[in-house]
Amino acid sequence: MPSNAGAAEAFREIADLLDVLGERFKPEAYRRAARSIETLTEELAAVAARNELRSIPGVGDAIAEKIREYLATGSIPYLERLRHDVPAGVVAMMRLSGLGPKTARRFWVDLGIEGPSALAAAIDAGRLDGVKGFGPKKIAQVRSAVESARIAPATGPGRAPIEEVYPVAERIVNALRARAPADRVEAAGSFRRRRETVGDLDVLVSSTEPEAVFDAFSALPEVREVRLRGGTKETVVLSTGLQVDLRVVEPAAFGAALQYFTGSKDHNVHLRSIARDRGLKVNEYGVYRGDERVAGRTEEEVYAALGLAWVPPEVREDQGEVEAAAKGRAFPRLVDDHDLTGDLHVHLPEAADAADVDRLRAAARARGVTSLGVVVGGVRADGSTFVLAVDARARLDAREGRSAGVWRAVETGPTGLPPPLRGLEHDYRIVRPTRDAPDPAPLAPGAPVLLVAHLGGGGEEGVGRVRRWVEWAREVGAAVEVGPGPERLDATWARLARATGVPLALPRGLTGPTDDPTAPIALGFARRAGAEPRDVRVAPPKRAEPRRRPTGSP
Q: Against a cut of 0.90, is the pTM above it?
């Protein structure tokens, strides 16, 4: 079935094949269209039905026609012709780790190599020796990529969910800060931009002792294989299969390197264009006027040298942020951790007792959280019900808890409380799709609905469903929950919610372990969507005052 993800993947493949064939400008046009389609918050078919395909950024007449072909038939004749023009072995080389379409083209056109096996034979025969751009280290890297593909054939660049990569990245960064002779250590790349998925992890270190940094890095227990080491770069593969690229730069260039390796590619291309217009050059080592480095120690210096305000990493996708930074004033302040003073959706174990509630409140105070919405009962996705233990509910009802900003929530569908929950005292409702109510419905009377939760990312077949729930949230005055994983909304949907006028709610991870990635990733998704503090709901509005328990009620 034709889908947005399928169309985006087809256009990326077109771009790669055009690169292999030596086209100069067309590949980037197709990649831009792919990125726009990937972040679209409605089905392509719906946009096409309104005859508005050209309203999608990067989609002109030629690409719009290919989208219509794809929607009608599930294929694109132009792509089929390109697949016929490029040998399958060359495509396989293009997919090898660290190569890409342009390197595969060099092997194919310049050396007559048409596949990984032929590439391995060429390396063994010394045919790459002396070829421009292929020194001993690069050749070793290519050999390693070919050998790795023999063990686990490449099927394209794999990407892992950011919630899986986050704790790994945190451990690596913290270990290098503790064990390596480094001034600064930061994760960069799509991880720093908080993309929903991560390919290779980039880690940047400021140090004058690269060998000592490499020693500390390769000694980490997660490292399974060192693929490349030399100069200022070391590449390793972790036990999980994730590739990590470590780069060591001098302190005077750290800001420039952090900006460069954070990306995105489109954002950096835009910056280089601005630099050329100003008679400057910008790269991973700094901003230069001739041979003189005029900026590079910090990212702020790099942007200022180009006449721009600093741009938060989460929005560096060349989608208007550079134009906003060029207006001569600070970039709009995005929501930050210290703005998140409340959590509307906190779960305790069903058998929790008073001590568990006290520990929760202590954790909240430690994180600066002054408003807690604790779920006291609800309906699970499968339709079964649950109720928090009596001791925990009694502690939540205590006067000192109430004055400290503790609220009680029930979690159910929009059509009202089932019988097991009707005597449960609560201040507001959290509505979620359930087996019996998977879609929005007329709202039953009761406590106000402050949050729509567990919507999931929708998937290709659920785009319309998520849009309907977001519209429903707007109608009833509820926020929508943002965060990683299959049951919360990512940055694309957070962007839709903001455009619809629906506030966001972000989890604080209060009941999880200290390295629980939920809270910082949810914050990253919100920032990636351009959310400012005013776009995030952290506590019930004043109209949702606590409802006191009637005398004699259960």
A: no
465: tokens are 């469903």
Query: Which two structure tokens, joined as six digits, stand for 483?
Result: 């965060």
Tell me, what DSSP letter sits at residue 56?
S
Looking up tokens 């294989």, which residue turns up? 225
Distance of alpha carbon 447 from alpha carbon 276, whole angstroms: 59
Closest CA to 299 of 170, 184, 451: 184
Average pLDDT over residues 148-155: 50
Greater model confidence, 475 or 492: 475
CA-nearest of 348, 345, 422 to 385 is 422
Q: How far apart are CA 333 and CA 330, in angstroms?
A: 8
Tell me the helix, strand and coil percentages in the chain, rounded to 5.
45, 15, 40
d(CA 431, CA 378): 9
Given this model, what pLDDT does residue 157 score? 46
Asked if 199 and 191 touch (Cβ cutoff 8 Å), the reply is no
**Residue 436 per-residue DSSP state:** S
Mean pLDDT score across all residues of the chain = 87
Secondary structure element (H or E) that encloses residue 238, with its range? strand 233-238
* C-beta neighbour count of 163 within 10 angstroms: 18
Plot region of 383 (φ>0 → left; ψ -120 to 50 → alpha; else → beta): left
Vertex 102 angle, CA 99 and 106, to 5°:
95
Distance CA 248, CA 251 (A): 9
Q: Which residues contact 424 (CB under 8 A, 6 or more apart)?
A: 376, 377, 387, 410, 417
Q: Work out the burial of residue 15: count CB atoms within 10 Å of its CB; fewer than 13 is exposed, 13-18 middle, 19 or more buried.
A: buried
Residues 236 and 245: their CA atoms lie apart, in Å, by: 7
Nearest to 532 by CA among 299, 259, 317, 312: 312
**Cα(374)–Cα(396) distance, rounded to whole angstroms?**
8
Question: What would the 3-class secondary structure string for 370-403 be?
Answer: CEEEEEEEEECCCCCEEECCHHHHHHHHCHHHHH
Backbone angles phi, psi at 479, to 5 degrees: -90, 165
- Going from the C-alpha of 404 to that of each of 393, 398, 430, 505, the distances in angstroms are 15, 10, 21, 20
Name, in order, each residue with C-beta under 8 angstroms of 351's C-beta and a sequence gap of 6 or more: 389
Q: Which of 134-138, 234-238, 426-430 has the lowest mean pLDDT?
A: 134-138
Q: Alpha carbon 123 to chain centroid distance?
A: 38
CB 432 within 8 A of CB 453: yes
d(CA 21, CA 108): 10
Domains of the chain are: 4-151 (1.10.150.110), 160-249 (3.30.460.10), 254-325 (3.30.210.10), 337-535 (3.20.20.140)
Which pair of structure tokens corresponds to residue 139? 């050749």
